[in-house]
Design brief:
By secondary structure, the protein is α+β, with helices and mostly antiparallel strands. It contains 9 helices and 12 strands. Helix 1 packs antiparallel against helix 2 and helix 3 crosses helix 4. The structure holds adenosine-5'-triphosphate and manganese (II) ion (MN). Manganese (II) ion binds next to strand 8.
Amino acid sequence: MPGGVEPSNLDKVFWPEKGLTKGDLIAYFQRVAACIVPAIRDRPLTVKRYPDGIHGFSFFQKNAPKYSPSWVRTVTLPAESAKRDVNYILCNSERTLLWLANQGSVELHPWLSRVGRLERPDHLVMDLDPPEGAFDRAVEIAFLVKEVLEAVGLSAAPKTSGAKGIHLFVPLQRRYHYREVRAAADEVARRVKERAPDRATTEFYIAQRGDRLFLDAGRNAPGAHVVAAYSPRARPAASVSYPVSWDELERIRPEDFTIENVPALLEKGDRWRELMPPPQALPAELRRGPR
Ligand code: ATP
Ligand code: MN
């Protein structure tokens, strides 16, 4: 492997329902590195590790382990809550990506901002969490969010989360503080809820949601993250968070995109880069918040 990362336990089964192994995970990352690395470059990265496969013990890892090789780039940030600083990994190379893969890092969860201006995210994200098994509801509400955004002149790019729902990414100029971006996302959520009070909610407590979709604007915060485009998920289908056009969104299912078929789909080009609108200004109307 590049850079002398020696892979180990390649035959360990990671996705038993599909018979896919740790070797398959590493091979996947190797084949799509040219698309994944740009999507996570310079973003503090949390990885979700599954050393014994998706049904085994797992944990979110924020801190670079003590045994990290010297060539793994990191950025040290004051912790949001804990007393100690966090030494985040920056996955800026294929070598680092494969090293992470070899440690059973199935899921990659980057920040919405990049080093240099960590307090000013370049993405506003709306996380659409439908009730279990209700992907159609996520699609329906995604189009409502699109309408609300378009009414203030904003464009968004959708991707499947690879699990139950959809993530909508609104690329922003790196000029707005997390506080402003969060306020704008809250206002978008409020407008969507107003249009579909029976189908969408911003209710944090699951018991209060009923069969409504949860519009999560809370990801727009330092220390929060959203799974990266092309990241595999710890789901039985070995699904991947995959960018789709608005047209495709109505025709696909999250399980259509897996670590088995995504490398071939990406041979035509980096879908995430192609589908992402250019960085946008945050409209004054959203920055003011509710009136
Ligand atoms: P789905 O479509 O099922 O909603 P999703 O990736 O959006 O898929 P969520 O359950 O909405 O999943 O949110 C998972 C996110 O929550 C992760 O991206 C991660 O940022 C965050 N998260 C959850 N638990 C932890 C934790 N223990 N430590 C850090 N972050 C966490
Ligand atoms: Mn979600």
